Amino acid sequence: MASLLGSADASTSPASDAYFETFQELRGRFGYEFMYVSIIILILATYWVGKKHNEVLAKTTMAVMLPLFRANFARVGDNGAELAIDAPHEYIIYLTGRRHVATVHGLIKMKPRQDLIRTLLTFFSSPVQDTCTLNVTMNPNEYSDGVFAIVPKATGTSVRNKYYDLSTFSKASNQKTLDSALITLTESNELTEAILPLVGDKLNKAAQWLDYFVVSDQPSFKPEKVPTEPFPKRISLSFRLPNARHSREIVPLVEALIACLDGLAENCHVTALTKAKISKAREDAGKEIGKKAQAERAREQEEKRLREKREQEKNLSPDAQRKLAAKEEKRAIKKRQKAVVKKA
Ligand SMILES: *[C@@H]1O[C@H](CO)[C@@H](O)[C@H](O)[C@H]1NC(C)=O
């Protein structure tokens, strides 16, 4: 331990000592301990600096959103903390207590700057971004069902493909009133006419940071079973974070989200015809899910049957097993012949 400490001292002030002119000399003097200790110091320094960097970014981002949150929600945060840390690169936002809204769950997710290994690994995978996502669960039945989104043109297709509701129900279209970098994904022109005026100008102001803005009555990932009750209605906003000095740039995006809280209940009511169309689309999607669930059940039953059969066969005498195999083969040949006849 004494030598470990000794080399740690040396590595913090190596330059001051003319004796250690090269790394090789250092290693010769201290062996591999010097290397190990340097790596440990590097990991610890990365942890400390990275954690601090992320903390500042998360807190600054929250600080620019906080006045909007406080003005609109009776409760900001949980257990006394407005922003809860979940990991050194993940901070949780929770809001509740507002007309038309059930809850808001948010997450500020940043690069894992505190983690040297993961940071190095991200150089080889797709780049990780600093993002903030706000998911609003709205009260049911206060405005029309439907799927509407505003996304960047450049990433719109991949966003649409990633989410079940967008890919199943919406189509892309250009809008004159939107920034040229943005497009809408919408289920109906009537939805676009109702929602775009609420948010368009605000999203235009910070178009460069937007990942997606979604109003939806359908889940973002494909359900496994046919639903027995309506899905919760939601608004989701996701954006990338500017660095802490420019955090204010994202404020118009959050303002757009806030504008929808009252705006949807006031403005988003489609005509009976469109309502019927939207409802039909959900029925069709439900049938699709039902069919798939049924096929899945049938497959599971078949697998179970085969498993049980194999179990039974294992318990037979060798002679009986041989007889069974012969019988099965005959049956298989007959089946093939029948198939050939059918084709002919
Ligand atoms: C927000 O919703 C998206 C899509 O449903 C989901 O992937 C994400 O985990 C949610 N985030 C939070 C913080 O709830």
Automatic annotation (TrEMBL):
Pfam families: CCDC47
UniProtKB keywords: Membrane, Transmembrane, Transmembrane helix
Protein name in the entry: DUF1682-domain-containing protein
PANTHER family in alphabetical order: ADIPOCYTE-SPECIFIC PROTEIN 4-RELATED, PAT COMPLEX SUBUNIT CCDC47
GO MF entries: calcium ion binding
Subcellular locations according to the entry: Membrane
Annotated stretches, region: Disordered: 281-344
Lipid bilayer topology: Single-pass membrane protein
Keyword Membrane: yes
InterPro entries: CCDC47 (IPR012879)
Record-level GO cellular component terms: endoplasmic reticulum; membrane
